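Why run this: before we spend reagent on co-expression, it is cheaper to look at a predicted model of the complex and decide which construct boundaries make sense. The entries below are exactly what would go into the expression plan.
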Amino acid sequence: MNSERRRAMKHDELARLEMLAEVDDLTARVSQGAERDWPWEPMQRCAALLRRVLGRVEALRIRLEAPLIVATFGGTGTGKSSLVNALVGSNVAESGRERPTTRRPALIAHSETDIEALDLPRDEFELVRNDADLLRDTVIIDCPDPDTTDTDVSGSNLDRLRQMLPFCDVLIYTSTQQKYRSARVVDELAEAATGCRLVFVQTHADLDEDIRDDWRTHLGERYEVPDVFYVDSLRALEEQRIGHRPAGDMGRLLDLLSRQLASSERISIRRTNVVDLLQAGLVRCHGLIEEHWPAMTQLSAALHEQQERLRRRMTEKLEQELMLSRNLWERRLLNSVTASWGLSPFSSMLRLYNGLGSLLASFTLFRARNTAQVALLGAVQGYRWLEGRKEEKTAELTTERISALGVDDSLLRESQLVIAGHVQEARLDPSLTSQTTLPDMRSQAVAVEGDFLDDAGRRIDDVIDDLAMRNSSWLVRGLYEILFLTYVAYVLFRVGVNFFYESFLNRDAILATDFYIPATVFFLLWTAVLVMAFTRRLRRGLTTRIRGLSQELVDRQMDLALFPQLDRACREAAAGRDGLEQLTERAGELQRSIAHSTGLGGPRPSAPPTIAPRV
Amino acid sequence: MSASLSEIARLIHELHPAVRALERAAQPLELPGLDGREWYELLATKLVPQLGDDTFLIVAVAGGTNIGKTVVFNHIAGSRASSTSPLASGTRHPTCLVPAGFDQCHNLAGLFPGFALRPSEDPADALNQSDEHFLFWRTESSLPDNLLALDTPDIDSEVRVNWERADQIRRSADVLVAILTQQKYNDAAVKEFFRRASAENKAVVIVFNQTQLPEDEEYWPLWVGTFCEETGIRPEHVYLAPYDRRAAEENRLSFYEREWPPVERDENANGESVIASDQARAPDEEPRDLLADLSHLRFAEIKLRTLEGSLGQLLDASEGLPAYLREIGQRSEEFHRATELLSAHELAEIDSWPEVPNGLLVTEIRKWWASQREGWTAGVHGFYNAVGRGLAWPVRVARQHWQGETLPPLERYQQQEWSAILDAVEKVYSKLTWMRELGNPLLRPRLDAMLGGTSRAELLEAIERAHQQVDLGADLRELVAREMGTFRSENPQSFEFFRRLDGVAAAARPATSVVLFVTGFGPVGHAVTPLLADTAMQSLVHVVGDVAGGTVAAAVGETAISGTTSTSVGYLEARFRKLHVAFTAQRAVWLAGLLKEQLLGTLPEDLQQAAKIGQGAELHRVRELTRNIRELVRVDRRTHEAV
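The model came back. Tokens follow.
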């Protein structure tokens, strides 16, 4: 039994430790994001905001183990000082009927409490030592009111209160029948409650009616309200004076405070407050980011669109030129066929023709004005040609080559104009575009085009191999071999008959050279007809293939971007946004899961604010 | 009513529509509207309905939430006229009690503009949580026949629409019954409300509710003192009401009057003012009847005082109508500055607008010349031309083959022009970006909209589409026909020109640059001479040519070009260049028109229109009325003082 309980305790302890570790992890990750240098302005603002929040978190971490700081909070005349007196059991805070009574806040601490460790601005307080039980684990501050001041000028009650609030761990929110819906107090609490546990108390139970149900309904929209106490501070003080423990709600309140604010709870409460702070900060950031995100999406879309435009322009041009370069197609197709066919009469013939063609091509190639032809020449040859040209270099050539695929300066400048507008709208660092000059863009475009052409070249090779294979089956090859050999056989037959039979037996004249001239002429004609017919055949389905090819090229994602820096910045911003959302989600979850563990009230995890539509 | 007051009333009734007209006219200035401006609300809800009307007093009960406003109201009414609730901000709508017969001789709705009037049937009506501003009213015979009593919503809860309604009633009211408690007498929201009432010179009756007598006898002078000091109010009466919930519910709460300011002070009490006589007298004093006390107020005097207070607010130099007029003037001036900024700088200067190839021009001129020939000469020329084209065909084909496909010259020109257009657009955008960075608050949002990526893409697309649709050939033909027509009519020896055409064409290629301006108040005029006489165009966007052709003309001499018989080469060259420049100008105007239409839209006109409001008739009228009213008020005050 005993060991079981010990195990259960150990389990609780572990769960607590796990929670604490998670809070630490969350803090670490938030600070990681806050320290980064973002290229996107809203993200920079978020980072700055988070750095401030982390400053407060750090202050909490420093006094993690120090006694909890409990402060009263509420409108003037709601009995903050009276409540403090009742809690402590003696008159430590001045209460009165003139408003506001408390101007200089009182700091009530046990005589053994080390005030220095709390890191409080000592000059702001009237220090009161008291040895009440409740003060063993806590320090109580009797705060000034937020609602008698017109504007928050320095030195006013509101100003003093605001200086105090960041130090408080727990707020005891007092209100009365008259004041529980005062806008000033309610608004101020919304600001103050972040990073604090809350205890709700309705005072003046001796005079006022119980409005706790209505109050709870109104509080419930924003706060976790586990309990609302309905107390008569004056009577409770009298009871304690004569040595009684206060009865009713005041007794329950004292119980709650001494139990939940015990030293063992300090770390939990402060961590909960840390999560509160982080969550509120993150939600704020989330709102900020979401507000500016549509412009960012627009920029991404615009980048994509410009890229698309570039690709479409190149593809269209390439397709057009490929359609026109019939000769080159035929040569490549023949090449491919002869490479796959072994040695045979017709294939030797094809090779011969092709060789002649290549010889001519070496002329035409240098004359090739058209990039599609380079791509068509095949990756290896084309590359060699390009390298050769590169050595001759000159920027003029580069531009010329770009314009060969329809990517001219106008296109680039149009893109840049449009993108610059989007960058400005998205509040991305404008230097990302303004520093990009036209030559930069040109060389980037050349790189993009080179990449595009490499890819196109590879695909063309595939198309060629495929077409060659499809259009030169064994049957076709046999047919052409036979047709070719028929002529050869016929001539050989004529020569054989003449040689072996007619000139030998009949003594006819042997065939003169005159015979071979027409024979050769007809041979050439015949082979030419055959080769032409064959190449025609090879080109069957070429048009559809080219169309298909350009469709593929249009659909293909390009590896290189026209605006690489902007692309990177967009991706970074998107990653930052995702990270922020994750953190917000996690902080909210953590806050929900530990909100009840303290038994005290607190702000609800605020939902990410709904974004007003852009005007 | 004094003569000057009725005169003021007449002017106020004129002022109201005049101010409304001014608001309408000032719409382009994008200022916040009149509704919600304190002086205007006073004008509309207090001065217009009440100035010049019979003397009656509007008494309104006002104060923070849940401190018993409605309880006090019910005591004035003598019955539970409005429902009470222990929960805060229960009363959402004002309730008004009117004396018998009042609604027959007065227009109640006109008295409370902004509220939808409803006859009150049930005391719980006022708790209705509707968003519409209702005012529930009913006749109460116990009221004196010139007193209206109102219960108002609170002025400090989170239900902010309650504040708005309470503010409306405050403006209409003459007497405010201020309900205070020791928790709320020093609350900022409460003080602010009554500070305004004090500025409007309202008569105020303080009821200090929920006091604990006799303990609080010592404190109430301090409380009321603080309240009066903070708000500037001088109460007509001060009452104390005890904390007695039962009595409050049964409508028999006692109100004890206290003298204010406390006159007899005990000088010995450590500087604290304690009223010795009150202390002695207070507990056994008779409770007072609030309604009876209110009926004894000096109606005419209070009415006059509140009207004057509202007039004072209306004419207040720092927050009233004069401030609004100043605001309009300043804003208008800002628009003027924005216009100046926009028009003071050229939007773009394109140095080298592409030139039409000479060959093209020459061809067009030849064609025009050919079309001018008549009879058999035309036929002969046509024949030779056809033969010439036929002979040239192989040469053309061969050249195309060797040099690759060359673009037709017009298409090439179109491409060059597109590049120049992009140049212009780029420059315009960078200029607009620069202007935006200058941070003129009026230009900035407008420029932001123009500079956005989507609008840029749209602009480019629109220009490109328009550019594609332009028939340059037709434009050129038309231009040649026009220019040559005038040339021939003023120079009979024009054939000389055609004879020398090729020689002239070889020499002349003027460089024309184009400057785009947004016209406005900027210093355009003398620096650059507008190229075009097209006034419609000039008023939108300035197109000016730094005409190199002009320098040629100067070199040859203006006399040469204006002389009718000149056939010198210089003269012909100048003629030829003039054709070039005219064409460029035509193209530049085309672009300028497009940019104006697609990019700037109505911005320049809008800005100019807004800038003119500062001198507009509406503003003038209101200013004059204000001056007259102020003068009358001064006279009125002087006669008062004299009396």
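Chain A touches chain B through 45 residues (CB under 8 Å). Residues 484 and 527 of chain A are 7 Å apart (CA to CA). Bring this page to Monday's planning discussion.
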